[in-house]
Amino acid sequence: MIPFLSGPLPEAVNSAVSLLVAFALGTLIGAERQYRQRTAGLRTNVLVAVGAAAFVDLGMRLEGSRGAVSTVAYVISGVGFLGAGVIMKEGMNVRGLNTAATLWCSAAVGAFAGADLPLEAAFVTAAVLAGNTLLRPLVNAINRAPIDESQTEATYEVQVTVQAEAAGPTRDLLVERLEAAQYPVGGIEVVERGEGTVEVVATLVATAVAGAELDAVVAALARMPGIEHATWSVQTAD
């Protein structure tokens, strides 16, 4: 008997159909990624979808639905490690998150196909393609919109540069001016900048401020005797 026909033929055909569905749907997702020249393109998404389908189908063949469920859990964690490999951090910027998420979704498509749920696999594929294509104009419009700083959750800092001997009085002055502007200080520190110069940094309690108000406070501080430089910065929350 031919080895690959040793099992029941209907099950072998069913496995083949599951893999073909995963291959076709993974191709749709991967083609869009390849077109946009992403790190994980056509072949990677197809292989992830087919691999997930193969493992889930194997689990079902061996232990039924219980085997499929336990296999899906391993597929999820395994693809998570694979997705981590395409995420890169460059300074304060993180790249590859969308590519990693797409790989995860390709695995979900393959898992549905391997579990003999081709229609659901097609629905997930359509959702992934919509997320990566139809939502792009909305993302671009949001990114181009001016930021209303009063509506953002962020950490605000005011930095004043002075000579080291003036650090104490400057710290008191900075707290006084900020609290007079209704911006209480959550913390303050003195950072050495070399050659007798220090930077007094005040972190605000407020999670949102009016930029014009902080500009006015900083401008007033910059005009004070002994203050070499004054500015403020914001770091948005994740």
Automatic annotation (TrEMBL):
It is a multi-pass membrane protein. Residues 156-232 form the MgtC-like C-terminal domain. The keyword Manganese does not apply. Residues 19-139 form the MgtC/SapB/SrpB/YhiD N-terminal domain. It is found in: Cell inner membrane; Cell membrane. The chain crosses the membrane at residues 12-30, 42-62, 68-88. The keyword Cell membrane applies. Its main location: membrane. It comes from the Bacteria. Virulence factor required for growth in low Mg(2+) medium and for intramacrophage survival. May be involved in regulating membrane potential by activating Na(+)/K(+)-ATPase. Belongs to the MgtC/SapB family. This is Protein MgtC.
